[in-house]
Hints:
InterPro entries: DUF4168 (IPR025433)
Region (Disordered): 21-45
Signal peptide: 1-24
Pfam family, one: DUF4168
Number of helices: 5
Structural class: mainly alpha
Organism: Halomonas alkalicola
Shape: elongated
Order of helices and strands: HHHHH
Amino acid sequence: MKRMTALFSAALLSAGLMSATAHAQQDPAAAPEQPQAAAPATDFTDEQLEQFAEVSQEIVVISQEYTERLQAAEDEAAQQEVQMEANDKMVEAVEKGGLDVDTFNAIGMAVQQDPELMQRVQEKVES
């Protein structure tokens, strides 16, 4: 279930990258400051960031599709089944995109905390 939470977080992050990056860059006070010691590694290659950008777009589509199905699920068992299926699809998309889940999640966390890295990924999304 940890993998699912991380991937859904990444999906939400990806959606935010595509719609709210400009706003976040214009209003740096909107993001809470993180202590330097807690900052994740940001030494990702351009290739990894490109892969992250491409996979993020797929994750957003998968997330939207499965969010609708999750809301339509009739009971907890059905919801759990939808979540597991969504998780599998997201993991498949990440791996097919050339990344492992840990690297994808690490980039996602780093992007949330590093506006410069977010800008680099946004540029990959737009190109």
